[in-house]
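Pipeline run #58 for the internal structure catalog. This entry was flagged by the ingest filter as a single-chain record with no existing model, so it goes straight to prediction. Upstream metadata was stripped on purpose; only the residue string is passed forward. Reviewer on rotation: M.T. Logging verbosity set to normal.
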Amino acid sequence: MSDSPPATAPAIRATAMAADANPYGKVFVGWLMGQMALAAGSVASRHSGARCPVVAADGFSFTTPVSIGEEVSFHAEIVATGRTSLTVAVHVWRRDRHGEGASKAATGRFTLVAMGDDDRPRPVDSHAIEQHAALEGSELG
């Protein structure tokens, strides 16, 4: 990923609120991680057509603090699939509330497992993932 926000729409977008901040006016890392997990879950569920809880998270890097009032965009993309799992990379960008200044705030990876109605892992339908990716590509063009 480059030094500028992706051209694609974020999986989710939020405004950093005072309730999410530490005494120094910066957002708690735990809030960022929770929002990142929500973005990963949204993308994994849409692509797999199943409920996808997070089973692992790693590779976190927090590079720029997020201040109260800033817009925070969570860009998520599937980077690997297994038989029942998906790995989703999430890149977080913060933007000044009253301007266009933006910088990368965090990155991380989440592993999620597609779950069936019986609450057991089920195979990821890779064909559905390819169809969804093709549909998103055609919507952008």
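catalog note: The chain has a mean pLDDT of 89.
catalog note: The two ends are 20 Å apart (CA to CA).
status: ready for reviewer M.T.
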